[in-house]
Amino acid sequence: MRKLFMICMLTVLSGGAVMAQSNQALRDSLSKATEILAYHPDSVDLRLKKVAWNIKLEQWQYAKDDLDKVLYLRPGNIAGLFYRAYVNEKLDRYNFARLDYQNLLAIVPGNFEAELGLALLDQKDMHYTDAYDEINDLVDQYPDSAVAYAARAGIEVERKMNDVAEYDYSKAFQLDSANIDYLLDRANLRINLKRFDEAEEDLKLAVKLGYPRGALIGYYRKLKYMKKK
Fold first, then answer.
1. How far is 201 from 206, CA to CA, in rounded Å?
2. DSSP per-residue letters across 128-187
3. pTM here?
4. Which phi and psi angles does 178 have, rounded to 5°?
5. C-beta of residue 108 within 8 angstroms of C-beta of residue 115
6. Considering Cα of 87, then 97, then 119, then 46, what sign does the dihedral take?
7. DSSP 228
8. How far apart are CA 192 and CA 42, in angstroms?
9. Which terminus of the chain, N or C, has fewer Cβ atoms within 10 Å?
10. DSSP per-residue string spanning 46-107
11. For residue 110, which of 86, 85, 78, 88 has the smallest C-alpha distance?
């Protein structure tokens, strides 16, 4: 889920171009963005574009420094608050990240990405009650969102709430059957629940939908091992 969150974030910030580039190409783009920014130091848009390269290269402190400048120039900038929250979390500055999400939600109540980020942050920071309340609210607000159900399932798995997690992965896959990750997450969970026939059906369906069988070898090994226990 964190991987999905990162992909969504970069797509919003950079129009998706970042994802197809190699590290060297990213560094070249960062160098060019830094050079242009030097001539326009008060440009929020240019600074946010530079942040995109910093984030992709996992240069969290550089990204934070630029986001601090963005929010100094425009204190209520939504993108700035959102991305600084994410970067602060990467820097283990959880309280600052939480404050950024909360400030963003005060400006844009109900924002999906901010509410999702806050719930995942609170789960990571062991604010378990807050995290579960927040993810439940997100599902209530966005009942047609596969991402919301999958995020709740991920939290439930971490909390050993496997039966309800299985339901949520099923719901996520029902809403977005093109996302085979939801199907594989359910298969893995069903193996843990010793519902082996259903897990095997999930794996067969993944192959039918185009997922390479060879990439499922880990699942089949786990299935075989769990059957023997």
1. 9
2. HHHHHHHHHHHHHH-TT-HHHHHHHHHHHHHTT-HHHHHHHHHHHHHH-TT-HHHHHHHH
3. 0.84
4. -80, -15
5. no
6. negative
7. H
8. 53
9. C
10. HHHHHHHHHHHTT-HHHHHHHHHHHHHH-TT-HHHHHHHHHHHHHTT-HHHHHHHHHHHHHH
11. 78
Q: Which two three-digit tokens encode residue 205?
A: 């369906």
Q: Is 123 helix (H, G, I), strand (E, B) or coil?
A: helix
Q: Which of 167, 161, 154 has its CA nearest to residue 120?
A: 154
Provide the residue-wise pLDDT of the chain in tens; the chain has 229 residues: 444 444 445 444 444 444 445 676 766 666 676 666 666 677 788 888 888 888 888 899 999 999 999 999 999 999 999 999 999 999 999 999 999 999 999 999 999 999 999 999 999 999 999 999 999 999 999 999 999 999 999 999 999 999 999 999 999 999 999 999 999 999 999 999 999 999 999 999 999 999 999 999 999 999 999 988 7
Q: What letter represents residue 174's amino acid?
A: Q
Amino acid at 136: N
Tokens of 77: 């900038």
